[in-house]
Sequence to fold (299 residues):
Amino acid sequence: MFKKIVTGFKQADVVQRFIYANVVVYIIFVLIGVFSVLFNLPSFAVSSKLWFELPASLPMLLQKPWTVFTYMFVHSGIMHLLWNMFALYVFGRIFLNFFSVRHFVGTYLLGGLSGALFYVLAYNLFPYFAGVVCTSHLVGASAAVLAIVTSAAVRSPEYRINLLFVGTVKLSTFAIVTVLVSVLLLSGNNAGGNFAHLGGAAAGYLVAFLLGKGVDVTDFVNRPLDWVKPLFNGKNSRRKRKPKFTYSSGGKRVDDYEYNARKKADEAEVDIILEKIKKGGYASLSEQEKRRLFDSSSK
Fold:
């Protein structure tokens, strides 16, 4: 059983691997809860989980700084997990139409980190939270997932998605409505979670906006990971690593993953324009879309 899980993880793509990680963490805590009850130690399950939840209290956070990372893989219940993983699967696939695997990893982690920052700042700045700051903790991948959604929406605002009971809407519209709902619920029962959502959305916007300017802020978290990977791949992993090629793009030199991501994004954008022509004809295109189609056909 364990071998099959490991094999499945190795064969999975980056979106599935993050889903695997979240699910495995959830199962581990469920098992801890089960055995804690069986041995009449219910408090052990609660205390063990607190070591991975993000505390709102600054003194507590200083004692457990690793929670700014771990909280985004911990969930409070099965529905919390299922909703976040469903959203991660759907929007993660869309994200990879425009960005690379490396960007996905960086955006997920940056979204979670930004969500943690917004959460802690809100609980320590607003008097509304003064009475609960010492007992409040944050869990869940929502901020990270919203970063993925927002990045994709900024990169391709016209991308269409189908929503149950709603129909086809623009990805940008979905992202904006989600952010607005979080703003409206900032004083609700899940106020901290909604502040984290805004942090994730802000990070996602920043990633996509700066990538459009040629600046990759995901390197902030990806570079440390590059140093950690060889520890798990064996001592000769650096020698076996595939060489990194570079290409010329607009007078700049870009890495192979960046080149492939841009190429994939351009193709997806052209597909959207062609689909629009099918529905409304060439006259339905804006001047920018006509220019984009002409530039693509000229290559």
